[in-house]
Input
Amino acid sequence: MPMTVRLEYESKKSTAALGQVFDYTDAIVRLGHEAQTESPLELLQFVDPYGNTAFNKLQMPAVLRDLRRLLAKARTEQEKEALLGIEKLAMQSFNKLLYLWFYGD
Output
């Protein structure tokens, strides 16, 4: 099952107009495990592939650093596309009171 990543308000009201990303390649989890062999990711190591994980505005700098590390490891265009889409959502959360949610299967 793909992981769904989207921006939501604290009340969990979806903000579909801001977009969502489907990670069909499981790049967050798979590349995250590979990156852990070098040094731990700051926050994306805590994404639960079978549950839900949220990050807030104050955590976005660390999330973005992790995403950039994973982008450097991406091997396919699908992986890069998913990670760039997630990065775009993370950047949008800086200007609004939104949470970046990762929904596992």
